[in-house]
């Protein structure tokens, strides 16, 4: 599987705790203060400089001025029928909070070719939390042999998945659809067969449940493996300036999972025009469809980074894979304490931002 890291067994238990949860809790007030002060600056600005006056722009940075010229904010283009329909459906879903069940659960959705090498490790992670999670397995190549009771009987009907093709996105949507059937599932995490947990269950549960965003990686890659994959056949709904890239591994809240189910317009655009060997270019929908779709439909609702860690720092086609001798306590401690998101773009630049 693409981007799968070949973790090899050799560790018994490495559900490491770190203190980054505190950081998350501390962050919220800062955000609110920032937001409040931004809002008040804005109001003062509007009060002093009535709308329409070009002087109003000077109260913001030059970037703020440009925001008014951004065609996505001031939509100069008339929307297509499909776009209007898509917008109203999605806005309506986003306005309607999902029904709260007594014990909200997290759906762990495994996208794998066959058997899962780390079932025993996941079993340790899940043990004792039986009422707060569900497991779904989409095995695209061969029937998995399960060794953990949490995985037995959790296979969903699957289809073949071809690396880089749209069948990857279809498998992700199949997992989401099956997991949505259970109204208790409030958050949905997509994982590969080579993912391992690096925090304990409570930490992961609280982190995902009490953050009201989806963790979808989303960034601009101006290079050949980013914007270079864009095709103008996606116009008018998907403009080049809105084309985004991101890790395939996401975690979404229930509302966003439903929004993904409701989408046919962008689904179709990417299925037809973002695929390997499209006009002599290779485009991989699993890296572009959801980041671009959420940028267009709910940019504030996503974190722009993914909760699964992958090391792309070697700058190769595939991320770093770990062999048994690489797996040390220090490595795992390093991974659990990561507090920035690193985006390596194909114009050979590295972009970092803290979260
Ligand atoms: C997320 O939660 C924060 C505070 O906890 C709140 O201010 C914000 O409006 C919420 N956002 C959404 C999209 O619900
Ligand atoms: C994610 O990026 C979009 C723009 O690309 C921005 O509007 C949004 O606020 C970002 N999300 C967070 C949580 O910072
Ligand atoms: C862990 O991080 C430290 C500090 O960045 C670094 O020096 C060390 O090589 C890392 N160790 C491993 C095993 O990645």
Automatic annotation (TrEMBL):
InterPro entries reported for this sequence: BC10-like (IPR044174), Glyco_trans_14 (IPR003406)
Localization per Swiss-Prot or TrEMBL: Membrane
Major localisation: membrane
Top-rank taxon, per record: Eukaryota
This protein's GO CC annotations: membrane
Gene Ontology molecular function terms on file: glycosyltransferase activity
Name under which the protein is recorded: Core-2/I-branching beta-1,6-N-acetylglucosaminyltransferase family protein
Native source organism of the sequence: Rhamnella rubrinervis
